[in-house]
Amino acid sequence: MFTGIDEVDWTSLRHAHGSAADVPALLRGLASADAAEREAALDGMYGSVHHQGNVYDSTLACVPFLFTLSARAEVRDRGALVELLVSIGAESAGARAQAAVRARAEAFVALAEDPCPWVRRAAAGALVRFLDEPDRVLELLGRRITAEGDEQVLGALTAALGQFVLRHPARAAGAVDLLAAQSEPPYPPGIRLAALGQLALHARERLPAELVPTAVRLLRERTEHRSAGPDGAEADTLVGRIRRLRPSDEEGSSLLRTLHRALDGRVADRIALLVGQLSSPGAMDRCNAVWMSAGLFREWRADFTAPVRLIGTQLRREEDQLRDASVSVLAELFGLAAPAADELHALVTVRPDLWVRTWERGRPSLGGPLKALARSGDPRAVPALAQLLAGPVVPGGLGFEVVHLGRAAAPLAPALRHRLGRVPLDSPEAAELAAPLLAAVTALADAAAVPEVLRLLRGAPHGLGTREAMAGQAVRALDALGTAARAATPVLRGLLGTPHAASAAGALWAAEGDAEAVLPVLLRELSFGRGRAPRTAAEQLGRLGAAAREALPALRALAESGRIWERVFAARALWRIEGDPEPVLPVLRSAWSQNPYTRCAIAECLAAMGPAGAPLHDLVSAELAATRRHTARPGGYGSHDIAQDERLLTACRKLLPSR
To answer: Where are the domains of the chain?
Structure first.
């Protein structure tokens, strides 16, 4: 098995952690009779030779030996070795790696007929990826489908047909015929479901008319007939930990994920499919549905009442994994979680142990159920939050969630002030502790909190950098308090020569209304400020209205040549100061298209402009007609702010109430 291994100069080759001198031992370990040694060797291969999917010269040197090991019947766990070879030869690994595996692709033909189901399953896709004879590949796949008796291998062959359609569209008809046959009896429900998913991706014209009801029925039949897999213990290795983290029904998750991906923007069908999944008698089917719903909610706009309500019912279940998944998704929905608020409140009531989440390192944070309830805007979160504020340690982030409760959180104001007043100013964590409390005080516009906010600005020692970290948010809090913050004006004046000058000038204007005191500062920051200062200065100048007419030339220049957010805020200020829509509307139209994140600010500006903003109502109308969230990326992945999108929709509906 290892002929020639000692002739390779492994010490001159490299892997992720340096010299590849240890690779021969890893290769020999893959052939060990001891399961733990094999697992450790595979762990080493993924941890160094193929670390995070990377390919090194030592990786390429391993390829011939991995093929040899994969072909030897006496070697255990050969399916894992075939999977490793497929990963090494993946397109993302680079041309050299692909060529190294492709040069020995004929070996996959025999492996596809191996007595071991795991080997056959891993080799199915390899035939399509690496064998450069499409007609032969299709014939091999068809033959294997006819002869195969293992359902998991059949599923891999179905997925391989989908890959074939993508790689060889000119020869897709034969593969589509095989998929259509697999979508019908006598194939088992899981295979029929897999075939439907591939047809939905590649040949929608071959789908049944009642796709969603058919898929839901097949899902239930699969759940009823699926037998549980082996429950053996995994070794404490990287590969073993990855396997333990996989869902117990990874295959079912993949089947439905493929179907959701194929349906894409057919949101009504996807909602109906989710409702069917969430109503399944199988707990893992429901858990898979909960996780899949997250991508749908992030990417698309629709009435999600039915699936959200069903996700709420999962909170009653005793399965911890299902409950935790449901809480995680609901916490991301903010106001859209309202249909599940009763269930969230019930969970918060009966499980106070879930109010706080503790970590091995770092401060405790607000628990998921209470966070989700607060983010939904439900006032029933207030009593539990009050108890936590009265406790010995305030969970991290609690104040940020109070913001979503609006005026319903007013009873928490005294406790928030009290905790803000107890922030240890000489602690390196002072800024981290103060930030969420300041956010809550700002949202509540709690005039009685002025002494506590001033304490943060006055008392923080310079040496720790705490003053700089907290000053911005503290100033914004004082700004929100308006004339109630007049006692803070000496401190605010002292900040007019700092990086917080523009924000401090705005707070000073809110407290005193003295344009002569703040206008020179804002003009300076508008033209010469760094970072966010010009944008903030433009925003504050707009608040001054006609008193800021002196700033009009500089604002016009910023609206024409500034960065995109600077242009938006300069345009808003121009409208507020002189009320002329002509220089404003082109800037707003351009920004709306260039950066979707500006749309909330623009929609709110159009609302303030009233009839003068009507020339841009076509943008608002198009936004309301769009079914995809304004910052979403296809697939529901990445950073998406559902709450921000809902805020945009609310602003747009106010502008065009008939829509």
So the answer is: 352-483, 581-659
